[in-house]
Structures are given as C-alpha cells and as structure tokens.
Design brief:
Length: about 300
C-alpha cells in the first residue's frame, strides 16, 4: 500500500507522461482539491475544459460534468475516475419528459439544467448552470417567451419569484440541498452568528433562499467571499466548498451546514485518480448525433452566459 504522498507523487508522474490536466469540482474532497490543476463549478470547468490544449482531462466530479466537458472538447479524452459517481438530480430527467412537454407547448423555450444527461441536453433548446440560470431565464423572460425548465424545482421556484413569472417545471430536487439545507438549520446558524452574511445555493428550498443575503452558485460564493468586506459567512450549500473558502480566505469565518454532504461527490479518492491515469479509465464516450445536439444547447448557453 502506498501512502498519501507516494500516491500524489505517482499522480504527478503519470500526469506529465500523459499530458493530462486534473479538473475538480468545488465539492470534491480536500485532498482532491489539492491535486487539481483547476477547481470550479460546473460552468467554470466546462469552459476550462474547452479551452485547454492537453490531450487528456481527468475530471473529478460527477458523471454529467465530465460528460459536458467531453461534449465541449471532442478533441480530448475525458476520464472519470469513478464511473458510479452519478448525480441523482441529473438522473431523474429523461428525454421523453422534454418531448412530451414540447408537444404540449410547441412555442415554449426549453431550458435544461446542466445537471442532466447528454440525451436530455440534446432535446433542450439551451442549458443553464447555477452560475448563469437567472441570466439565461431572464433573457427569455424579457422576450416574453413561455419557459419550461427542468429538472430542479427549487431553482425554478426561485426564478419564478424573482422574475414574477410562471415557469413550467418538474418536481426534481438535489437531496443534499433540498433535504439537508433546511430553514431551521440556517436559522439556528443565523441566531448563533447574527453578523454572518448568508450565501445560499439556488437548489436549496425557497424558504431557505428567503433567508439568504445572496443566492448564487459555488463559483459566485468563492468570488463573493473573496471580495466582500464581510468577515463571516453562512454557507448554505454542499459543505465541501468550505475547504476552498477557508483556504482562500484564512482571515474570514465560514459556517457550514453539518449534514450537507453529497456522497456521489466524495467517491473520488486519490487512489481512484491514480488508477484513472494508470489504466486510462473511465473514458467518457459520446453517441452521435446526441453529442452534437447537446453541444448546440451548451454552446447556446455559453453565448448567453454573462
Ligand atoms: O453548477 C454546479 O457546479 C453545481 C450544481 C453546484 C455549484 O457549484 O453551484
Ligand atoms: Fe447532484 Fe446535488 Fe450532488 Fe450536486 S450536490 S452532484 S446536484 S446530488
């Protein structure tokens, strides 16, 4: 058995040999964040993947994120260290849901969250992430378009409230945000730390978002914590993010929600990253023409993204 620093050394050796780059999501384990070349939310990482000139990307995150990177970078190999790293929210939506909705609402624009499979993205008009959802939905709202959005019901309810519109939505949810980030949990942190600024992810329930000072994705939280004059923050999202927040802002205080842990984000370990490089696994393969259609919806998002 190799120890941690031996595994880290081996990873860097194989990375050089393969001209590989490691991308990691903000919810990954601390030791994975430490070996990543780039850290970010799904939008940051999708963009980064498409701009890199390497041959191989090792994607430390969940399946739909690696798939999005592969769709946007057809010239590179994208490896997902643990194939079972899925996202239950992404897996709840099917292409049939969109086809059915389109039949009933032929004039509506269909916006799919990036947390969906390539087959679902292929049927959507445009994709959005937690970082750009409000801007993209507002773009169509300003055009007075009827909007269908899937699959996250909380993000949809928040957008409806913000924009004063009605969206055709689905009952999908992220178990981490919807179940563990409760009004009670946030309120009790607020009572304990009344001066803390509350940042909440739009996948959290509306009654939590109503308590927040800012509703943003994790990339937005990183930027806000770095630039804000506030000294303490309540972080209403998956708690893996606080490792990066604390590391980048050692003088500020961050209070996490104890049970907000995404099991699927934690299955990637140093050993699995080393195995991915050593055995060149698990390469994300795309089916055409699904990939081309999904790419079109993703590119439309990049075009509309602020
Ligand atoms: O878009 C992402 O990366 C998700 C789902 C979480 C986040 O980072 O805001
Ligand atoms: Fe999916 Fe929620 Fe985990 Fe993100 S935190 S990967 S939305 S289950």
């Amino acid at each position: 058995m190799m120890n941690k620093s031996e595994i880290v050394n081996e990873i860097s050796k194989y990375k050089q040999k393969l001209n590989a780059v490691i991308l990691a999501h903000n919810y990954q384990r601390p030791e994975i964040q430490e070996i990543a070349d780039y850290l970010g939310d799904s939008l940051d990482l999708a963009k980064k993947a498409s701009h890199l000139s390497c041959k191989t990307i090792v994607f430390c995150g969940v399946h739909f994120m690696a798939e999005s990177a592969a769709i946007l970078s057809p010239d590179k190999d994208v490896l997902l260290p643990v194939l079972e790293a899925g996202c239950p929210l992404a897996d709840c939506a099917t292409p049939e849901m969109i086809l059915e909705t389109r039949k009933r609402n032929p004039d509506a624009v269909i916006v799919a969250y990036i947390n969906t499979t390539a087959a679902v993205k292929a049927e959507a008009d445009v994709i959005c992430t937690s970082a750009n959802a409000m801007a993209i939905l507002k773009h169509y709202c300003d055009q007075q378009k009827k909007i269908c959005y899937l699959p996250d019901k909380n993000l949809a309810a928040y957008a409806e409230k913000q924009m004063g519109i009605s969206i055709i939505k689905w009952p999908g949810q992220c178990y981490v945000h919807d179940t563990h980030i409760t009004k009670d949990a946030v309120q009790s942190l607020k009572q304990k730390y009344p001066d803390a600024f509350v940042m909440a992810h739009p996948e959290a329930p509306l009654n939590v978002l109503e308590l927040a000072d800012a509703v943003i994705g994790t990339g937005g939280m990183i930027k806000l914590a770095g630039s804000s004059d506030h000294k303490s923050f309540i972080v209403a999202t998956e708690k893996g993010l606080v490792y990066r927040l604390r590391k980048e802002n050692p003088k500020k205080q961050f209070y996490e929600i104890e049970n907000a842990i995404c099991a699927q984000m934690k299955v990637t370990t140093l050993q699995s990253v080393l195995n991915a490089l050593k055995n060149y696994q698990h390469k994300i393969t795309l089916q055409e023409p699904i990939a081309a259609r999904a790419r079109k919806a993703l590119n439309k998002m990049l075009l509309l993204s602020p």
